[in-house]
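Weekly puzzle thread! Below is a chain. First person to post its structure in token form gets bragging rights.
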Amino acid sequence: MSKAFAVIGDPIDHSLSPNIHSAAFREIGLDSSYIAYRIPKGELEEGIEGLKKIKIHGFNITIPHKIEMMKYLDKMDESCSLIGAVNTVTNKDGILKGYNTDMDGFLEPFKKKKLNITNTKVLLIGSGGAARAIVAAFAKEKAKSITIANRTLDNANTLSVFAKKIGLNSNAIKIEEVKNTVKNYDIIVNATSVGLRNEPSVISLEGINEKTIVYDIVYMPMNTDFIKKAKEKNAIVIYGYEMLLGQAVRAFEIWHGMEAPYNAMKKALLGGF
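Winning reply:
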């Protein structure tokens, strides 16, 4: 029995998910298909009805529907309710269950590279979409503290309150205040979209060393200015594509109940660059 999967969002034509999942199906010989399905803002309810009609087995959700989608779920797992957004759904006989794989996806590269998070000091740049999941990830792995730097202090403060609520020592600052303090952190994460259009990094990485972990969640281009600056300092680098891959692997496991073919998925993803 053939199973259908999709990713929904708008814009969607640039999505690498169909490539990644189709490669996984081919590798294991699964009779499944995965398509990108554009659902504009404001049309989510009809879109989901359409997916139910074709008996979609599962789907991923991207911008702009990750929060609104929660209204249409029958069940959700704890990562979903904690983060307040959903990016992966299973459909069992019309019952939709939501998951959020951002947290596990974000942590996957640390686990693969055996990098420690416990007791580290973290600097997080940005407080948008993925930032809550990242804060939750650092709380789960018992980081020592997180400093959230953002253009608008209000958003950083909101995220900082959330961090404290889930047991992570936290403070909020404006991006300009980072200046030359980067050397005080063990892990520096860019969770803004800066770099997508090859813009210069929003902070200087002067003072970091080969023990600093620098993680950019922007995956296109692979070598953002932020990543390039980290490489100049011989820092430990985690690319955005590694998080994307971690999320895809987790979604695959949720849908199919088996281990994902990591290498085949990685090859398909990097082939998309």
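Puzzle host: Confirmed. Bonus trivia for everyone else. Residues 104-238 form a domain with the Rossmann fold fold (CATH 3.40.50.720).
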